[in-house]
């Protein structure tokens, strides 16, 4: 009897991943650019959570079909492209008050991915499998690109003198945008084609896992449907997060907290699909997949956001402030140093994961009490 019940429920479980993204998108269309009362914010939050879970499901379907590291790349790039569109839209509407929006969003993404998602993935995998094992070549290459792009885009503007304040001159901004695109393109080429084996999961014995040993991959039709629904779910996640942001902003102001806390909360919401997907991979001892998601998201955030805002700055009237302040410079340096020490041994214990989480906690604390 129970077996028959589960058989009947299985199609319903499969259907919710189709229905929820469509309903979430409909809710987004009905609430976009409108003031929302408290009960509507609650409904929007429920659909936001459902869209996040649906996005993770469809990302896993695509990853199962195309294999690693392509699956991680699809999710990271999809989230970032939508996030970039949201940033440019908000900058166009915000004027001078959105001058630091791109900087704050990119830096929040770097801190959350390189410390939060990476640290949690290591803790989850190491607690269950004693140590978290990954490929140092691929992870180290991603970390080197993140350090270079973050320095060129977010650190140098603090020290240049061609423009007043932590801003690039037009020529410097063009260089930073071009360098970001070129380096990100080279990283994707390395990950997808030239050295794909550096980004595949490895076992405790160091053996590369080419294919997962589980159910047969989905059909081409099912994969295309999941790809379309992944896009719908991610648009809904970012749009609904934007919709609840005024409520979050009001709560932050009522609590007497700095406005930068809003950016942290929105970044956490937008990065939820990658976080859940990374933790699921870590539980299966596929730590390299988790690191591909974390570091790939950080790279995509810098490599795509900076060129986009550079182009947008030609028609946006407000200033574009990219340079980090002193406390954030310290946190970025600490993140890169600790990340390097984590990567070199090719395996990590819960201690290394806890160190990264401590850095993220320091970032959140400074956002609350700068």
TrEMBL record:
<protein>
    <submittedName>
        <fullName>Ionic transporter y4hA</fullName>
    </submittedName>
</protein>
<dbReference type="Pfam" id="PF01699">
    <property type="entry name" value="Na_Ca_ex"/>
</dbReference>
<keyword id="KW-0812">Transmembrane</keyword>
<feature type="transmembrane region" description="Helical">
    <location>
        <begin position="222"/>
        <end position="241"/>
    </location>
</feature>
<feature type="transmembrane region" description="Helical">
    <location>
        <begin position="261"/>
        <end position="279"/>
    </location>
</feature>
<keyword id="KW-1133">Transmembrane helix</keyword>
<keyword id="KW-0472">Membrane</keyword>
<feature type="transmembrane region" description="Helical">
    <location>
        <begin position="328"/>
        <end position="344"/>
    </location>
</feature>
<dbReference type="InterPro" id="IPR052946">
    <property type="entry name" value="Alkaline_pH_Ca-Antiporter"/>
</dbReference>
<dbReference type="InterPro" id="IPR004837">
    <property type="entry name" value="NaCa_Exmemb"/>
</dbReference>
<feature type="transmembrane region" description="Helical">
    <location>
        <begin position="171"/>
        <end position="193"/>
    </location>
</feature>
<feature type="transmembrane region" description="Helical">
    <location>
        <begin position="70"/>
        <end position="91"/>
    </location>
</feature>
<feature type="transmembrane region" description="Helical">
    <location>
        <begin position="38"/>
        <end position="58"/>
    </location>
</feature>
<feature type="domain" description="Sodium/calcium exchanger membrane region">
    <location>
        <begin position="226"/>
        <end position="367"/>
    </location>
</feature>
<feature type="transmembrane region" description="Helical">
    <location>
        <begin position="12"/>
        <end position="32"/>
    </location>
</feature>
<feature type="transmembrane region" description="Helical">
    <location>
        <begin position="106"/>
        <end position="126"/>
    </location>
</feature>
<feature type="transmembrane region" description="Helical">
    <location>
        <begin position="138"/>
        <end position="159"/>
    </location>
</feature>
<feature type="transmembrane region" description="Helical">
    <location>
        <begin position="291"/>
        <end position="316"/>
    </location>
</feature>
<feature type="domain" description="Sodium/calcium exchanger membrane region">
    <location>
        <begin position="39"/>
        <end position="190"/>
    </location>
</feature>
């Amino acid at each position: 009897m129970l077996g028959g019940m589960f058989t009947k429920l299985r199609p319903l479980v499969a259907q919710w991943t189709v229905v929820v993204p469509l309903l979430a998108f409909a809710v987004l269309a009905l609430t976009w650019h409108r003031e929302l009362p408290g009960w509507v914010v609650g409904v929007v939050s429920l659909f936001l959570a459902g869209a996040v879970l649906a996005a993770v499901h469809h990302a896993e379907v695509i990853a199962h079909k195309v294999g690693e590291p392509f699956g991680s790349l699809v999710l990271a790039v999809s989230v970032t492209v939508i996030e970039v569109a949201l940033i440019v839209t908000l900058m166009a509407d915000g004027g001078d008050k959105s001058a630091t929006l791109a900087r704050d969003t990119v830096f929040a993404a770097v801190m959350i991915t390189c410390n939060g998602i990476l640290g949690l993935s290591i803790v989850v995998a190491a607690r269950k499998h004693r140590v978290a094992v990954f490929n140092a070549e691929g992870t180290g290459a991603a970390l080197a690109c993140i350090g270079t792009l973050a320095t060129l885009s977010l650190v140098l503007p603090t020290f240049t003198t061609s423009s007043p304040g932590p801003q690039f001159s037009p020529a410097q901004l063009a260089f930073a945008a071009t360098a970001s695109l070129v380096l990100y393109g080279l990283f994707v080429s390395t990950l997808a084609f030239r050295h794909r084996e550096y980004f595949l999961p490895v076992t405790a014995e160091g053996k590369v896992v080419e294919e997962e040993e589980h159910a047969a991959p989905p059909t081409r039709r099912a994969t295309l449907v999941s790809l379309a629904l992944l896009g719908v779910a991610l648009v809904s996640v970012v749009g609904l997060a934007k919709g609840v942001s005024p409520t979050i902003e009001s709560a932050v102001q009522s609590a007497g907290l700095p406005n930068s806390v809003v950016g942290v909360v929105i970044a956490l919401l937008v990065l939820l699909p990658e976080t859940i997907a990374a933790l699921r991979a870590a539980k299966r001892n596929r730590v390299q997949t988790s690191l591909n998601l974390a570091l790939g998201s950080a790279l995509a955030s810098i490599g795509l956001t900076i060129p986009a805002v550079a182009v947008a700055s030609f028609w946006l009237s407000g200033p574009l402030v990219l340079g980090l302040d002193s406390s954030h410079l310290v946190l970025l340096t600490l993140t890169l140093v600790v990340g390097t020490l984590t990567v070199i041994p090719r395996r990590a214990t819960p201690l290394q994961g806890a160190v990264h989480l401590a850095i993220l906690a320091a970032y959140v604390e400074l956002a609350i009490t700068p």
